[in-house]
Amino acid sequence: MAHASMRAVGADVNDLVRALLEVAGTLMAYVDWEIEAEDPLFDPTAARAARDHGILAETIRTWPGALRSAHPDAGMSAVAGSAEGRTAQAELRERAAWLVADHPFQYGYGEGSPLDKLVRANGKVLMLGAPLDTITLLHFSEHAARIPDKRVTRYRRRMAHGVVELEEFDTCDPVHASLPDDFFADIASDYLATGKGASGVVGRAKSYAFDAADLHRFAVAWLEEKVR
Asked: 169, 115, 170: which is closest to 138 by C-alpha?
């Protein structure tokens, strides 16, 4: 799963996606959607990635062969890279399809979500010049952490099959009132301070790589320690 500030990296976004696909095999991005009208109708085949996620998310969403999950707001796109041999290529396509399939409408950052599957698949999270407080995986950790009084948001979306009532733990504000706005960055920094993760420079940007499952476990424990 990749997040990037292309301005910080200073590279062509298409070149970056091609390079990531060569390394990762399967590439995923958080796309959400760009709401451009009041009470919009969500169409997963056409909904543009939210602009504040950067151009990488929209590039992955529109990459040839890319697939998008059905959740309007927690939506992810995944694309398979190239591999030698039909069997290997088919496995990559199946992995991309599995990541975005059957995305639950309720609590779309929780169990059964693409984030959950990223953890189960022993995936990696790459932050290429992107701020550490934008690690979307940590919304899954918010969901999994056993802490009291989580903030819950409820809203509705118009879809092709009708209006859907949605419920989520709040992802716009900290999930608990006692947490600071940038606590995702605090979690990531504390994790890196243990000597885990990796850092380096991609293009012109300070960048980080995290093991998704290990970071998730650390984040759950961090939240349960901080919020009691």
From this structure: 115
Q: Which residue has the tokens 């929780």?
A: 110
Closest to 34 in 3D by CA, of 3, 75, 85: 75
CA distance 125 to 196: 13
* Rg value, the chain, Cα: 17
Other residues' Cβ atoms within 10 Å of the Cβ of residue 70: 16
Closest residue by Cα to residue 174 from 147, 193, 213, 192: 147
Q: For residues 146 and 224, is the Cβ–Cβ distance under 8 A? A: yes
Closest CA to 63 of 76, 79, 50: 79
Mean pLDDT of 200-220: 97
Opening angle at CA 154, ends 151 and 155, nearest 5? 145
pLDDT tens digit string along 105-129? 999 999 999 999 999 999 999 999 9
Sign of CA dihedral 37, 106, 54, 132: positive
Does the pTM surpass 0.85? The reply is yes
